[in-house]
Design brief:
alpha/beta; four-stranded parallel sheet; 3 helices; 7 strands; 32% strand; globular
Length: 114
């Protein structure tokens, strides 16, 4: 029986929380997260502190790295992947990646946390 596929668009705090919770609920679930930017798991509520200089480095806002989620939680995190189209009837998301060709990703369940 094929594993169920969860696709999450958006890899900041809400997206990674959803991915982590899904992993706890179903260790067999195939989880993929698409993040347009280079970093995941940061709290956007901390951006004013960075912009004002109270937080010196943007990386200080990052709680966990994409590698952490890949290695420790078995979550396929794809940074620099921008979701550009959703085909609900086909259960597919089209994404552009800075480093490779466009991709079409199938899903069984979709969560959008942009």
């Amino acid at each position: 029986m094929p594993r169920e596929r969860l696709l999450i668009i958006g890899g900041v705090a809400a997206g990674m929380s959803a991915a982590s919770r899904a992993r706890k609920l179903d260790p067999r679930l195939e989880i993929t997260v698409l993040e347009k930017g280079h970093h995941v798991s940061y709290g956007t509520c901390g951006l004013p502190y960075y912009l004002s200089g109270q937080v010196a480095e943007a990386r200080e806002l990052v709680v966990y790295t994409a590698e952490f989620f890949r290695d420790k939680r078995n979550i396929d995190v794809r940074t620099e992947h921008e979701a550009v189209a959703i085909e609900p009837g086909r259960k597919q998301v089209h994404a552009l990646c800075k480093a490779s060709q466009p991709v079409a990703l199938p899903y069984d369940k979709l969560v959008v946390t942009t």
